[in-house]
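A note on notation is needed here, since sequence and fold are reported together in a single record. The reader may check this reading against the record printed directly beneath this paragraph.
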Amino acid sequence: MDIDYNLVQRAQMLLTLDHPLSQVKDILLREGYPQDQVTELIEATEEVLNYLVPPEYDENKVGIDILHPGEKAQDRKPSVDILIDKTNGRLSLLTPQYQETWRVANEVRKAIKTQRAIYGSYLQ
């Protein structure tokens, strides 16, 4: 099915304004866009987002979830902002666009460095 270009642009704008996907669907339907097109667009968007989130990690990695300013803790889905590899101490910033992610990452790096300094002397 061909989806109206204006519908796609409007959905993109709503998503960049941090509206949840369910709310985007409701807004688009209220604005009069065809239900079949809206449903197809939302389903395709959900499919794409499911490939991006959550990040894959195993028992060798730790995920840190950060509550960013403006977010409400209630009814919030947990997501990983920083991924730490336990074997080598490397950090992966999954949300580098947020200043809080950098702050927490710097504190984690300091803690890892301190632990290596303390426990490194015992291991030698």
